[in-house]
Amino acid sequence: MPLSTQAVKKRTAQNRYKKIVDFKNLARLSANLHKQGKKIVFTTGSFEVVTPGHCRFLAEARACGDVLVVGLCSDRSISKLKGPDYPLLNQDARSEMLTYLRSVDYVTVVDEGEPHATIVLLAPDIFYTNTKELENGNVDEQAEFLLKRAGGKLVVCEDHNPYKSARDLIEHVADLRFTEIVASYLWSKHIAFGLDSVPNFKPADYGDQTPQDRKAFNPAEFIYKDKAVLEAFIQERARLGWTTKAKLVFVSGSYDLLHVGHARFVEKASLLGDFLLVGIPSDAKIKAMKGYGRPIISEYSRAYVLASLDFVDGVYIFDDFTVADTLATLKPNVFFTVAEEWNSGLKQSPEYKIVRKSGGRVVTAPRQSPFLSSSSMINRMAAKKVKDIFKECMDEDKIKLMQREGSKFKLHAESDVKKT
Fold first, then answer.
1. Which intervals hold domain Cytidyltransferase-like (predicted)?
2. pTM higher than 0.85, yes or no?
């Protein structure tokens, strides 16, 4: 008898730890996979903050073969190359995060720029990389020689635009934090300063990230952006055999800079039913609720990463301050939400009453990584960079240059006044 969808999700969750493979076991993994006739694809990366670009890259890598093994760059090697403030997250957290992606079959820790031993042990059929990795020297002649000797080949993909690395996000957040600090100081002196006059601080948008390989998984097919599409989602699930016995679970959150705590929480929700729909508020609503500079990642980009998780069946972007209307339309069997002090009056909320009225139930659970939040990640990302910006501003040569530029601006302004 085939397993139910819920049973399959539970089995996947129980076996997730098996996706992380010790370096010493790579040769055995390779032998087992090749014995089954599987084509092994290998790629490497830091994956400090999982972005839509990463998800597309890994999906296209996976489409080149049968099994994708990701070589995650070790903490030691990243710190050596990028400095003591990196990586943003340790290798355990980064490894676990990769196991939640449906395109990733196995993860092993390697040293950045030194894939040689891994190539020898894993003997991949394909080493998948991009032009930036080649330019950075992370795949050298020795690596190519070892790959060829093992019967494999190098596949290089073009960088997908817009390209944004973890460092690009850090620059984005730091510029925002710097502007906020300056604005706060000026406001305290009763000097007007309009943040909305700075157009560059929109959420980071990674574009549609459509995979070039049609065989690659495309998260866009699982993203719904309006109520009519949400209703179509319900009808489609019914057409595919959604019976009264199948359970629909709904969970919502901003999920800005998705991390392992988010992934654990959403997976926990998925285990309560057969189909999981994740709701995320639009950029406009998050900005209204959390203030200028949030979200860091655009609504579509946030949805894209969520839809790449192997336990998510759909992501709905709603343009409301609460999920009440969505719950009324969706009528889920289970509404999964966080158990925290701010949520203690849940049973008196409209959301609770809506779910109960339609015959569903509300299930709560604590945060799965209480010491890790998007806000803490954002602040950590920005802290050092903000200090560097202030240090740069205090440089005497910089001050003199700004004074000269200021004088030019004053002369232009006076000239314009005379003309009028």
1. 43-128, 251-378
2. yes
